[in-house]
Amino acid sequence: RVIHVVSAISEEASGPSYAVKRLCEELIHLGHQVTLATLDWAPMPAPLPFLKTFPLGIGPRRLGRSPEMKAWLLAQVRQKNADIIHNHGIWMMPNVYPGWAVKQTRIPLVVSPHGTFSEWAMTHGSKLKPIIWYLLQKPSLKSVSCFHATSEEEYLDIRRLGFKEPVAIIPIGIDITHFLPKPSERINKTLLFLGRIHKTKGLDILLQAWSRVQGSFTDWHLRIVGPDNNGYLEEMKRLASKLKLERCEFAGPLYGEQKWVAYRNANLFVLPTYSENFGIAVAEALAAGTPA
Question: Which of 31, 182, 190, 243 is 20 to 30 A (C-alpha) from 7?
C-alpha cells in the first residue's frame, strides 16, 4: 500500500506530472494498492481512479497550503493504511506534509527531488526559498528513509546538501510510441526544442545561439514547441524580436501522437537547460530516432 504525494499533475508538459502518474499506473499493474495525493489546481481531463485531490487552503498559492491534505496524511499514518509514503518534489507544503506525517513512526518515506536539489534550482526562484528550506522543508526531510535520484548528477546533488540516507539511482521510465521510420531528408531542416517555456530550460541561451548561426545555416529553421509557464513565452518572443531572428517558430504545445510526429520530423533536438535531473524530452527524442 503506497501513497504517492505530488503538488500537481495538471500540467501535462511537466516531467513530474507525467512520470508520477505513469509510475502509479505501472505499480497498480504490478498488483500494488496505490493512492496519488495531489492538490486540486485545475479540473482533470480524465479522472484517475487512484487519484485523491485536496483543495487549497488560505495562503499564497505558490506554497500550496492544504490543511485537508495534511489531516488526511496524518490520519492514513495513524490508521496504518500505508506501508510506504513516496513524496515527489520539494518547496511546497504538500512536499512538507509527508515528513510530518511519518515522524516518529516506522513507515518509510521515499523522496524523489525531481531536479529540485540542483545548485541552479536551489539558488533561483522565490526569495523566500532559504526561509522555506530552513524552517519547513529541510526539517521535514529528517524523516526520509531513502532518496530516489533519477541520475548520477542528482545523486551528487543529494550528497552535496549533506544528506547521508541511502539513495537509489533509477532513471525515469518513458512511454515509447510504435517506432516509425523518419521522413526522407528534406531541403529544409528542423532544429527542435520541445518542453515547457520556462526559465530553467535555457531558451534565452538557445535564441542567442540561433542569432549567431542562423546566417550560416539558411536551410535550417528553429521550432520551439511547448506551453507557456508564468508568462515566460512572451518574454522569449520579445527576445526573438529584439535579436531579429529568422526562421524561428513558436508553435505552442503538442501532446500525444502530435508530439511524437514533431520529434520524428526534426533533424536535431536541443535542450540547452540550466538545470536538468533527467530530461524526459531527451529520452523521447532519442526514442523517435532524432539526435539530441
Answer: 31
